[in-house]
Amino acid sequence: MTNRIALGIGKLNRNRLSQVLRKSSGIFDVKEVACWLGITSVEASKILSYWSKNGWVKRLKRGLYIPVPLESSNGDIAVEEPWVLAEKLFRPCYIGGWSASEYLDLTEQIYGTVMIFTASNIKQKEVNIAGVKFYCKRVSADKIWGTKTEWRGKIKVLISDKERTIVDMLSDPKVGGGIRPVLDVLTEYWESEDRNIDKIKEYARKLENGVIFKRLGFLLEMNFPKEIELLEYCKQNISKGNSKLDSSLYCNKLSSKWNLWVPENWKVEKK
User: Fold this and answer.
1) For the purposes of burial, counting CB atoms within 10 Å of the CB of 123, is it exposed (0-12), middle (13-18) or buried (19 or more)?
2) What are the domain boundaries of the chain?
3) In the predicted model, is pLDDT for residue 8 greater than 60?
């Protein structure tokens, strides 16, 4: 059966499109196409616009495109590598929070939304592109550290390592899905053989957010009370004033030891 796309594409465009598809990892932008075809960005933009109007590629956002599968009869696409799309959309960025905990085997929960930390200017925290849902948290470029490199085809993607994932979640439980999932991740990490307490302390200091030590100290004391040295270290580094264990929860009981408001059903240790 002759494909609808093959019917309408001329020899020059067919050759150019084939060249782009060979060089790309499935998602490409104007600058890449210009480089691959040896043309200017203006020319590449016009070509991509023409391909998009004729259903050979689909525009994801300004300057960013994905090929339409030959078997597609209506132009629908499915993004096989959401991480590649994230790198193209939000660079500089890294995969973190619940997405990192899932990938690093710190949780058995499956999340349908990709958690992204990005230094790009984002207008919305929740974004849906080509059926892929992203939740974005803005960070400054100098806060993109504590990551490891993962390759998706030809594209290098950054993902937070275990320790950065932990401290990010303690800094903002929302990126971990809430304090209960964060506690589960922390417990899984703490019971593993490769936990690195010195790295946790280093990262927590580097993020310069005293509430991390409040939440870490509180959760460790409740679940791993024998970590006396680390508990004392957390106590010495908590910030002044009272914070909430999870800003999304109703917290009406104060742990004066950790300067932390917690929900009624959480056990609180006094000073």
Assistant:
1) exposed
2) 4-67, 79-187, 210-271
3) no
Query: What is the C-alpha separation between 103 and 71, in angstroms, rounded?
Result: 31
Handedness of CA 259, 260, 264, 269 (dihedral sign): negative
Q: In CATH terms, is domain 4-67 a member of 1.10.10.10?
A: yes
| d(C-alpha 92, C-alpha 118), whole Å | 6
Residue of 159, 157, 110, 114 whose CA lies nearest to 135: 114
Cβ-contact 238, 217 below 8 angstroms: yes
Tracing tokens 């990551």 back to the chain, one arrives at: 147
Sign of the C-alpha dihedral computed for residues 82, 83, 84 and 87 taken in this order: positive
Beta-bridged to residue 57, according to DSSP, are 67
pLDDT interval class at 5 (50, 70, 90): very low
> What mean pLDDT, rounded, does the chain reach?
89
pLDDT in tens, 104-141: 999 999 999 999 999 999 889 999 988 899 999 999 99
Q: How far is CA 192 from CA 105, 122, 185, 196, in A?
A: 11, 36, 11, 10
* pLDDT, tens only, 18-72: 899 888 877 889 999 999 999 999 999 999 999 988 888 888 888 888 888 755 4
Amino acid identity for residue 64 in this structure: L
pLDDT of residue 23: 85
Residue 118 burial class via C-beta count within 10 angstroms: exposed 0-12, middle 13-18, buried 19 and up: buried
Q: Cα–Cα distance between 128 and 131 in angstroms, integer? A: 6
**What's the half-sphere exposure (Cβ side, CA atoms, 13 Å) at 172?**
14
